């Protein structure tokens, strides 16, 4: 049963849902800092990412504050995976190219990747990056070019930069102008949002 939001709020929901990019996602792999996780969810919402995949094998998913739970996580779905195989199967079923953030010689700068393709980007742990156990499920490695002495961004900042680049490419391709959800998917999600 609908909570009957104001016409303005309903219109905002309809607009936001119409611009969601269902074929763009992040994988949070053992990221432990709740502030980083909260910030990543906010960036996902801001850039139209409707769902994140959670891969937590040796780190508990952090307890997020009530404010966060009532804001960005309210609008971004979470899908948990217990095994690498489950994660890989879920991403492959959606036809995703799977990229891992890395600073290896094989990594390519973010602008050299076609992020208008269905894409999942794995964001690794704050201290050790993306775990080696995930290497065989990725199609390539992506990095953000930097010009200073420090060789890495905070993981939440990196997520925002990568999503901003994906959004830039997708905006240029007109992808935010056409809904990625089918009418049925759109209707189901709108009804769920109306309950929030």
Fold and architecture overview:
- By secondary structure, this protein is α/β, with parallel strands linked by helices.
- 38% of the residues lie in helices and 16% in strands.
- It contains 7 helices and 7 strands; from the N terminus they run H-E-H-E-H-H-E-H-E-E-E-E-H-H.
- The chain has helices at 7-19, 34-46, 66-69, 72-75, 84-93, 155-172, 183-194; strands at residues 24-29, 51-55, 77-81, 97-101, 108-109, 119-123, 140-143.
- It has a 7-stranded parallel β-sheet, sandwiched between helices.
- Strand 1, helix 2 (34-46) and strand 2 (51-55) form a beta-alpha-beta unit.
- Helix 2 (34-46) packs parallel to helix 6 (155-172).
- The longest helix has 18 residues, at 155-172.
- It is globular, with a radius of gyration of 17 Å.
- The termini are close together.
- The relative contact order is 0.21.
Rounded to the nearest angstrom, the radius of gyration is: 17 Å
Q: Would you report the number of β strands? A: 7
Q: Report the β-strand fraction as a percent range.
A: 15-25%
Structural class: alpha/beta
The residue-averaged pLDDT reads 93
**Uncertain segments:** none
Q: How would a crystallographer describe the biggest sheet? A: 7 strands, parallel
Element-by-element helix/strand order: HEHEHHEHEEEEHH
Portion of residues within helices: 25-40%
Distance between the termini: 11 Å
Count helical runs: 7
Q: What spatial form do the alpha-carbon principal axes imply?
A: globular
In which order are the strands of the major sheet placed? 3-2-1-6-4-7-5
């Amino acid at each position: 049963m609908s909570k009957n939001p104001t016409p303005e709020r309903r219109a905002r929901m309809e607009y936001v849902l119409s611009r969601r990019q269902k074929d763009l996602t992040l994988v949070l792999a053992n990221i432990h800092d709740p502030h980083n996780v909260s910030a990543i969810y906010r960036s996902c919402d801001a850039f139209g990412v409707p769902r994140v995949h959670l891969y937590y094998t040796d780190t508990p998913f952090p307890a997020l504050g009530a404010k966060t739970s009532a804001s960005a996580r309210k609008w971004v779905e979470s899908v948990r995976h217990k095994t690498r195989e489950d994660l890989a199967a879920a991403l492959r079923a959606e036809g995703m190219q799977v990229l891992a953030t890395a600073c290896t010689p094989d990594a390519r700068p973010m602008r050299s990747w076609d992020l208008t393709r269905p894409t999942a980007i794995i964001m690794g742990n704050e201290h050790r990056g993306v775990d080696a156990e995930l290497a065989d499920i990725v199609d390539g490695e992506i990095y953000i070019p930097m010009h200073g002495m420090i060789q890495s961004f905070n993981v939440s900042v990196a997520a925002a930069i990568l999503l901003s680049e994906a959004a830039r490419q997708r905006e240029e391709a007109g992808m935010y102008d056409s809904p990625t959800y089918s009418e049925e998917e759109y209707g189901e999600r709108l009804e769920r949002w109306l309950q929030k």
